[in-house]
Amino acid sequence: DLQICQHRAPTCCTKKMEESYQAAVRRERTQSIQALNFELKYMIVGHITAFQEAFESLLRFAENRTSSLFETAYRPMAKEAAEPVKELFTDISLYILGAETTVESAVLRFFDSLFPLVYSRLINPGITDLSEDYTECLRLTRQDINPFGHYSKNMVTELSKSLWASRMLSQALSLGIEVINTTEHAALSKECSRALVRMQYCPHCQGLTLIRPCVGYCLNVMRGCLASVSELDAQWREFISTLEYLANEMAASHELEVALAGIWNSINEAILHAQLNGPQLSATVDKVCGQPKQQEGNLSSANIVPVKEVTETQTFVMAHTSLNNKRREFINYMKRSRTFYASIAERLCDGDLVMRDSSTCWNGEDVV
């Protein structure tokens, strides 16, 4: 009653053993493909982790720099500005990780929150009544009167250029892991599992436990079993080329590191611009939002404190070099894996599975 290992000679197999063999080859194929995938997956996961760690480090560095700008130069609004600053960097982080948001919405939301503070603490420091309605009016007015000049738009442009490639690379790496995981758990067809049993276990039914499949026979079986997986070859090669392109984009003129490190300077320039145009802004705001309550007495506008750029070169250069080196190493490794799916059958038939340098091997029906 054997279905797979039918042979003229007496056999030591049963139908139940054939079923056990089918379960065994399914398990073994999954384990073999997992072993092949392990190094590739390990490299991609490792790079995702290294990329995110380096990115978070740069982000914290940029956020701390921006917070210290408010604490040193714009102390009257430092406490209230802490939350908008935190939100801005959280939004940037979420954007990189693929959230449904844009750099423009994150930056403009920050400047919307910043304007009421700049207006009431720096331009008109005598304002006492900053009601919700008045604050909201200031937020909405910011979009019409553009108090921060071209600095807010410049910040959007610079960050968008540099963060786009990082976002795409992050998504591409996650996609790579998804593809590898899917191929690991690709179901074997009934015909394939029968062919694998015939190749690996049918000799056992004849008592030939040491004989192994012929190389050509193994390749034919594996190519048949893995036809759907090897069809990924063209797309995988294209995927590697895309990774290379994105890594080069990240390392090009609009670098992530430079853009993040420059956020505080863009904000500083924007605030200075608003302060210098304080009287015109006040006149427009009074017409649109009305005049808020003022403290008694003559309070002059807060002094404009230009902040000179502080170069924390050592930390910045180390993070910059680290990220660049990791990118280069990773792309060189991935380029070597271009033929991963084209050669998967050959790699599975390599090693202990087949008989090499021997005069006898199993061809599916007999020892030859």
TrEMBL record:
Annotated source species: Rhadina sibilatrix
Subcellular location: Cell membrane
Name by which UniProt lists this protein: GPC5 protein
Family: Belongs to the glypican family.
Superkingdom per UniProt: Eukaryota
Example GO BP: cell migration
PROSITE patterns: GLYPICAN (PS01207)
PANTHER family reported for this sequence: GLYPICAN, GLYPICAN-5
Sorted UniProt keywords: Cell membrane, Glycoprotein, GPI-anchor, Heparan sulfate, Lipoprotein, Membrane, Proteoglycan, Signal
Coiled-coil regions listed in the entry: none
GO cellular component: cell surface; extracellular region; plasma membrane; side of membrane
Membrane topology qualifier: Lipid-anchor; GPI-anchor
